[in-house]
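Question (not urgent): is this output format expected?
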Amino acid sequence: MAALVLTSGCSGGVAGRSAAGGSSPATYRWPLTGQVAPHTPTQPALSVKIDNAPAAHPQAGLNQADLVFECLVEGGLTRFLAVYQSQSAAVVGPIRSARPVDGALLRALNGGIFAYSGAAAGEIAPAKAYSTAFLISNDNDPGPFWRTAAPAPENVYSSTARLRAEAVRKSAHPGLPEQLFTYGPVVPGSRPARQVSVIVGRTVSASWVYNGSAYLRSENGRAHLLASGQQVSTTNVVVLRVKVTHSGITDAAGNEDPFVLAYGSGAAEVFRNGVVEHGHWSRPAVADGYAFTSAAGGPLTLSPGASWIELVPESGSVSPL
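Got this back:
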């Protein structure tokens, strides 16, 4: 039987036909994971900005996200944009401030809901200008959030249920996400790669090791553990080479916040099922969707499941093993 390949923009049900020629029940799939859904997905993507500074560990809720984007921020650190649709998380955090890259990433998800805690005017400007997302900020209304006894600012948390309820309470009607990636079988002849190390910022290095069913994450040489005790894991690791420009925004220590460009084009690598597939990504403008092409010219395919997207600056490094 031929494998089913889901292509970008296909977010509804997939209807099949029986051997006798009749119609079989529709198969619905989650657009952000390619996995089977119990019904047509109707809820928007919920994106949450999660800190990754040393004081932010251990985080909560990352393993329930459909997608996690890792992006460079000031001081050579990174920050995560965790995106939820197919699963819920009772605790998500610590939640931190927005960054300029969020505007383009949210737009690729058709806006949806964006939760964050704090942001200078220039940091949140792109999200307000073109993300089309419904914004929920702890600074504007702390109701959907709570604080723990940990020192601020790494003490703001929420849940996916609270954040979605807040959007409903505000009568928000954000759009539904379309599929970002193509899902399909491993390309025959793909190079084995059971490990990959990436350096996104000068103070953060991450490595992923395939254990036969998922990729397990370590950071700066130690297992990346969550508050639950689980190690961070994912089905796919997607590495996108991106350009970084200046934001003109600096922190109290004088470090400039980089403006990571989540549009344009660059090299792409997909680590899935213990192999790596090389290719190219393209997104000419913020209003456009992503296109992923393999080195052989076909679609760059992922395995159905959660994905971590490492936005690696051209000055960073990727080392598959």
